Amino acid sequence: MTRGILVAAFLMVGRRSLDASIRLYALQNVFVAALAFALADGSVHLLVAGALLFVVKGIAIPWFLLVVLERLDVSHEIESYLAVAPSLLVGGLLVALAYRLGQGFVLAGALLPEAVPVALALLLLGMLIMSTRRKAVTQVIGFLTLENGVFLLALAESHGLPLFIELGVAIDTFAAVVLAGILMFRLKGVFGHVDTSRMRDLRG
Amino acid sequence: MATYLVAAPFFVLFGQAVWALVSRSPRAPLPWALSISGGLMLIIGYPAWLRPGSGAVDATSGFYLTLLGLLYLALGPYLGSYLEHHHGGRARLEASLIPVFAAVMAGITLAPMGYRFLFLWETMTLLGYVLIALDGAASVNGSRWFFIASRVSGGGLLLALILLARGEAIDGTLRSLVWAGLLIGFGTKAALFPLHMWLPRSHPVAMSPLSALLSGGMTKLGLYGLFRSLTWAGSPPGWVGWTLVVLGLCGAVYALLRGLAEDDYKAVLAYSSVENLNLLLAALGGYLVLHTPLFLYAFFVHQLAHALFKSLLFLASGALPSRSLSELGGLWKTLPRTAAYTLLGVVAAAGLPPLAGFLGEWYLFRGFLSAPSGSAGPGLLVLGLGAVALASSLAAALYVRLFGLAFLGSPRSRVVADAQDARRGTHLGLVLLAGPLLLVSAFPRLVLGAMDAPLFPVLPMFAAVTVAGAGLFAHLRGRRRSEYGPWDCGYGAPSPRMQANGLGLSEQLLKALPLVQLRVRSLPARGDGREASQVHVDVRDPLEDAYEQLGARYGRLARGMQRLLQSGSLHVYLALQFLALVIVLVVIWP
Predict the structure, then answer these.
(1) Closest Cα to residue B520, out of B548, B533, B269?
(2) How many angstroms separate the CA atoms of B590 and B588, rounded?
(3) pLDDT digits (tens, 9 = 90+) for A53-93
(4) Are residues B568 and A130, on separate chains, in Cβ contact within 8 Å?
(5) Less crowded by CB within 10 Å, the N or C end of chain B?
(6) What are the tens digits of pLDDT across the range B238-289?
(7) Would you place residue B519 in the very low, low, confident or very high pLDDT band (cuts 50, 70, 90)?
(8) Using CB atoms, which residue from B570, B575, B577 is nearest to A199?
(9) Helix, strand or coil for residue B535?
(10) Contact assignment for B569 to A201 by CB distance below 8 Å
(11) What pLDDT sits at residue B304?
(12) What is the pLDDT of residues B196-250, one digit of tens each?
């Protein structure tokens, strides 16, 4: 299942369609939620966290993003500084780096040691997506991937964070995405586009 | 009881700082606060220095507390009357910040190694910067130099103290690194040769009492730091001593040559400070190489002497109507008191025998002479003898020129006529510095009591020189003045235009030594031709040029980095964060 998460994240780097990226993000979360269920072993805490993950990140956020994308009335193509092939190459290098470094970050008593490199890879791929893609929507997706990496790391290294923090983070993420959606509408309204590479005038 | 006594001067100073912020007359108790705290520091510090282990502080702290106490004691009454023409917010700020500055300087001599020391050190440099910058637009450039130097110094110290504060044993490369940090950190503050550029730029633009406090007091703390480092960081690697000796001696000669080309009265004094500090650093270096106490005697005696005579000279310079030497002249008649105190300071600073300025040089000579002959390494130190001799003769030339141009001859411009001589408060301040200077000159045991140092017969020499001088004076006075003959080649009524200009006494000397290049051009005569001719001196200094190029290059680099880092592109910001993340991951990889 950890492989599934990695493949879903890696494919995001290679796709040129925004819809596909969002669906891949949803898939990623389904895998993470399934992982949480599998690890739960009867503990309520992980079951709740997994369910929450599935509902908020697996369904609500992707659905919201798709709606935003539809309403924004911009092309559904990903515009990137890097073409597909170099993106995949850099992504592959980052995954390799994550696997090379990941072994060293496993704590004693980790619940799922093999997920640690995957979590690191998710972090790095999220950063890659954020820093090379030009549309504001893709920045949100990159950020969400990165956030998933953090969650997975917590899950892999320990028995998950305390439930309240988990809850808070999930709601936080959702709120951030909603805010980002509103911001994107404003951007579209003011500039007529959501291309962050064209916003570089410094003020003040 | 003793601890309370040590805290007392700090309470007095901070009390004044708070008083100045809240009261209607912020300046009124400032002289008392400074003088009382100075007196208390003397009471604490001097016995501790004279009889190590007896006081509440150790001997080294005791020495520096004594030095600072003497300065504060004299500075109090001087500041009281000097600040009278400052008003409003500035006066309030000065009356509040000067005591804090004084307290922080004294605190540095008592602080243990570590973050407290670093905190006080940075506070001192920051306050110094603010106090210089308070003088307004004219001092902006100088205060900036001060600030940049303080960053360099702080950087070196941070490196060294963090390594030291870990408390682990340091040896090998780490020890060299620590000492490099200490040399840069304290050396910059003590104007070690290539790092001295800030001093002649920032000290002259400060007001005179502040110049005295900076040159007399603050720079000594750099020396204090280096001396203290011997206990903090253990014995230094061999290169430290040699670096100090070589750079110190080069720096002394260089600073004097540079000072001989300077037109600004206070800048000449500042260059002389650089020279003295570099000699002191060379003395410390000599001690590290040879371990003969002669160098330590020089180190301590000359520090106290320099603090006294340089403060005396700076305080006396407060009465001068202009800082430009080519506008001064003939001040002996308008400012007789100032001239007398300046003469005393100049004689001491030029290192003439009976006064305290000579004693340090004498120990320095003896120290270099004590180098073992024959062996290649430490034996080379004998060569330092020549450098010290050159420096002391150049120092004499520097001060003859300074005093001659400013106080002798006839006025070079009209500003001289309006000059006002020292008033009561300033006069008292000068007396309080001149007194200890004469006392230390006549009785060096007052400083060296604890060290059991060899001395030349000071008192007989003092008496002999005084009697001979008085006799010569009486003889010259009693001689009949010569009459002007009919063929006196037009010198019958010498006018100011006929006397040497601001560079007249040193130009030939500087041309003989090709270290600085001079371009002199005369300006058209002003007024009715009765005033002295004005010259514009353009000094080219290879070292300064190198610094300027370095600065320009750094500026270009910084602008380039700024364009890169602050481009406004979201993706660049994100990519930089990304890069940082990857680097951190790789670095902390277990």
Answers:
(1) B533
(2) 6
(3) 888 888 888 998 888 888 888 777 888 888 888 888 999 99
(4) no
(5) N
(6) 889 899 999 999 999 999 988 888 888 999 999 999 999 999 999 999 999 8
(7) confident
(8) B570
(9) strand
(10) no
(11) 92
(12) 888 988 888 888 889 999 998 899 999 999 999 888 888 888 889 899 999 999 9
DSSP secondary structure letter of residue B416? G
Closest of B508, B529, B531 to residue B322, by C-alpha: B531
Structure tokens at A87: 């993106």
Average pLDDT over residues B76-95: 83
Cross-chain residue pair B586–A101, CB shorter than 8 Å: yes
User: What are the CA-CA distances from residue B394 to residues A158, B254, B298, B537 (Å)?
Assistant: 75, 10, 19, 20
Q: How far apart are CA B191 and CA B198, in angstroms?
A: 8
Number of cross-chain residue pairs from A and B with Cβ atoms under 8 Å apart: 45
Q: Measuring CA to CA, which residue among A151, A152, A6 is closest to residue A91? A: A6
Residue found under tokens 């320009």: B552
The mean pLDDT of A101-116, rounded to a whole number, is 80
- Chain B positions contacting chain A at CB under 8 Å are 566-571, 574-575, 577-578, 581-582, 585-586, 589-590
Q: Residue B577: closest CA among chain A residues belongs to which residue?
A: A127
Nearest CB among A105, A131, A202 relative to B574 is that of A131
SS (H, E, C) chain A: CHHHHHHHHHHHHHCCEHHHHHHHHHHHHHHHHHHHHHHHCCCHHHHHHHHHHHHHHHHHHHHHHHHHHHHHCCCCECCECCCHHHHHHHHHHHHHHHHHHHHHHCCCCCCCCCHHHHHHHHHHHHHHHHHHECEHHHHHHHHHHHHHHHHHHHHHHCCCCCHHHHHHHHHHHHHHHHHHHHHHHHHHHHHCCCEHHHCCCCCC
pLDDT of the residue at B408: 85
State the complex-level ipTM.
0.83
pLDDT at B447 over 90: no
Domain ranges of chain B: 236-452+502-511
Find the residue in B nearest to A120 (Cα): B585
Nearest CB to A200; choose among B569, B581, B589: B569
DSSP label at B174? Answer: H
Q: What is the distance between the alpha carbons of residues B290 and B283, in angstroms, rounded to a whole number?
A: 10
Q: Encoding tokens for residue B356? A: 């305290």
* Cβ(A122)–Cβ(A10) below 8 Å: no
Give, in order, the Cα–Cα distances in Å from B6 to each of A40, B1, B19, B48. 66, 9, 21, 12
| A127 shares contact with chain B (CB less than 8 Å) | yes
Among B567, B578, B590, whose Cβ lies nearest the Cβ of A131?
A: B578
Separation in Å, CA of B561 to nearest CA in chain A: 16
From CA B59, how far away is CA B196, in angstroms rounded?
28
State both tokens at B254.
Answer: 């260089």
